[in-house]
Amino acid sequence: MPFLIVKPDYPHAAITNARLNVRKGEIIECPPDYMPSSSFLVFGSRAEAEKYLRSLHAASQNLPEATQPATPPPAAEGRSRPSRERGSPSSPPPLYPLFRRVSSIHGETVYQLFSRDIHRFLSQPEPDIMPDLQRLNIHKNTAQRLLDYEERHFHRPSIIQALKAIIEREEKAESEDEEEEKEEERKPAGEGEPRGSGEKTEKSEKQPKAPRGITHSSSPGVRKLLQP
User: Fold this and answer.
1) In what order do the strands lie in the sheet containing 40-43?
2) CA atoms of 196 and 202, how far apart (whole Å)
3) What percent of the chain has pLDDT over 70?
4) To 5 degrees, how large is the angle CA 123–CA 147–CA 51?
5) Beta strand pairing status for 100-103 and 21-23?
6) Hey, CA dihedral for 66, 69, 75, 78, is it positive or negative?
7) Local confidence band at 69 (pLDDT 50, 70, 90 cut-offs)
């Protein structure tokens, strides 16, 4: 039974029709009586297909990294944490092709995996997994799912340590962001009071008004009566 892979130069992220739904980087068994189109690569066994994907990963490691911009993008201003720098749009693409690139609420680039792809990613050899864990800004929820699966099925200490570091880093970044938002929401004491309000109050306390119905020598009526 042949196995199919979407060609790397196919212009879309997936091929979907009445018989199958396959994304780039996935290996599927060819359905019975299905004639693959020219958009597929056909392999005689799953081992051959996996070997081809590994060669693609190795080739991507040899690609030159994109040049860092001279000035950071506006969304990254004021954020100097390493995790945020790794999430910049100019960072190298992931070696594992099923990582999805999305933007966080702060405009940073983060990578996610569907739950169905967790096993496929972690079933690779450790040297093929570690580069993505070390350089990608992986979403905390994805990192937590990877950690749970790794601890249940594979138990590789270096990968467990790398995933825990990602989760700890993201939790720290979230707490710092929340603290920054709280600082912005806090207003200094006395803000919003009109200038001079304290001075006017003080003057009004020093010069109280005379009780209604009582006249004194400075009133207009009394001054008129006292005139010679």
Assistant:
1) 28-29, 3-6, 40-43
2) 10
3) 65
4) 15
5) unpaired
6) positive
7) very low
Asked if residues 83 and 73 have their Cβ atoms less than 8 Å apart, the reply is no
Weakest mean pLDDT among 23-27, 61-65, 133-137? 61-65
CB 49 within 8 A of CB 3: yes
Task: Give CA–CA dist 39/6, Å, rounded.
Answer: 6
pLDDT tens for each residue of 129-139: 888 898 888 99
Long-range contacts of 45-51 (CB under 8 A, 24+ apart): 45/3, 46/3, 48/3, 49/3, 49/4, 49/5
Mean of the per-residue pLDDT values of the chain? 74
| Residue pair 174/105 in contact by the 8 Å Cβ criterion | no
Whole-angstrom distance, CA of residue 170 vs CA of residue 32: 46
63-86 as b/e: b if 16+ CB within 10 A: eeeeeeeeeeeebbeebeeebbbb
Which contacts of 43-52 are long-range, i.e. CB under 8 A and separated by 24 or more positions?
A: 43/2, 43/3, 43/4, 43/5, 44/2, 44/3, 45/3, 46/3, 48/3, 49/3, 49/4, 49/5, 52/5
φ, ψ for residue 29, nearest 5 deg:
-80, 130
Q: Residue 30 in contact with residue 42, Cβ under 8 Å?
A: yes
Please name the residues in contact with 107: beta carbons below 8 A apart, sequence gap of 6 or more: 73, 74, 75, 76
